Amino acid sequence: MDERFLILSIETATGCGSVALTRGGVENGRLLAEATAQPEVSHSRRLLGSVQWVMQAAGKEWGDLHGVAVSLGPGSFTGLRIGMAAAKGIVMAADVPLLGVPTLDVMALSFPLIDRPLWCLLDARKQEVYAACYLPGKDYRPEPAGPVEAIRPGQLAALISESVILAGSGVDTYHETFSQIKNARLVPALLSYPMAARVGYLAAEMLVAGRIMNPATAAPMYVRASEAEVNFKK
Fold it and tell me: Which CATH number describes the domain made up of 111-191?
């Protein structure tokens, strides 16, 4: 059972980064330690200190870990790269599996029970949101209904014609647009941040299923090209 798995998790997809140590999965998980910060400096300056703190706070050693999980994205390009680099370094040093968890799946876990479609939205800047839809699955737990995409808020609003839940930073940024959707429940980002503990719970289930990543080839889920890539192609 996945309750035996001790997972170190890293979430740097958003400005509010976190590191957590958890044991077990979604149904039976326990949070042992978590460090969260809205850093004035980049995640790279805080991340390894947070990792060290949660390990010491929980009284655990590197040899106790069963895996290291990282929030895959989408999100901040720089934050995702920093998180992935740190996770790769730790798994190579500790000789444990690497697990990648889509960031919007982590957000969806803020709503363990849903009775209607749930759209998780991250502000993608450039007048777009990263969006993914989740439908009630087994025991009303959110299950992905399709791929993550980058889309303009107005386009997404025009596609929604039923009662839905909209959650995340994209809701805050484009509240005026999404508030015009009939029968939509808008949930602010404050209540749906992708926290590292939830990364760990989902990662434990992935470990049970054997869904691990190759550290040599693992890469964040960017969804769209970075500004540097667009300029390079031009």
Answer: 3.30.420.40
